[in-house]
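Handoff note, outgoing to incoming analyst
You'll be picking up this chain. Sequence as last confirmed:
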Amino acid sequence: MPEFFTSIYQQFLATSALEWLATITGFLCVFLAARQNILNWPISIISVCTFAYIFFTSKLYGDAILQFYFLSTAIYGWYYWQRIESIQDRPIKSLDRKQFLITIFITIALAVSIGYLLDRFTDTDVPYADGLCTAMSLVAQFLMTRKVLQNWLIWVVVDIFYIPLYIHKDLLLTAVLYIAFTIIAWNGYKDWKRTFLNTYTNIE
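Most recent structure output, in case you need it:
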């Protein structure tokens, strides 16, 4: 057991400055998103650009490509949230049953497709795990830009999936970050749900 903790400590010492930058800005942008703070988007731009390089060099190609998608959604989300001045003017939405089933179908289709492409055309050793996490992240991020409540539930699941994946890739600091992301995502869901229910009650 002492050797295990020694190994973890050594991995932290070996963590690059880039991974520290990506981790700190990544934590901040998710924390601020859960608080519906528009500053999450510009900070997200710094984080995703840094993570894109880290994931590419770690042969997590799906995650690397995903960062460019995150970059475009960060720009869009920044515009979309900034366009309307108050939180009340950009109410949180919730998926109905049909929309939720469609979302699940799209996520599965994306996961299989991305996993197949990564397996066929790259040298990654985790094509389908990377593909699943990438697909779920694509869907969750889009739902977040549109302020859909269920984005946080998807983030909870995908963040949990990412933890062992990053440990496997010796990205320990990033794995720890995703433990924090899981907690923030769950709290974000509860906070957004409370706001959604309060808004719905006021409308009623």
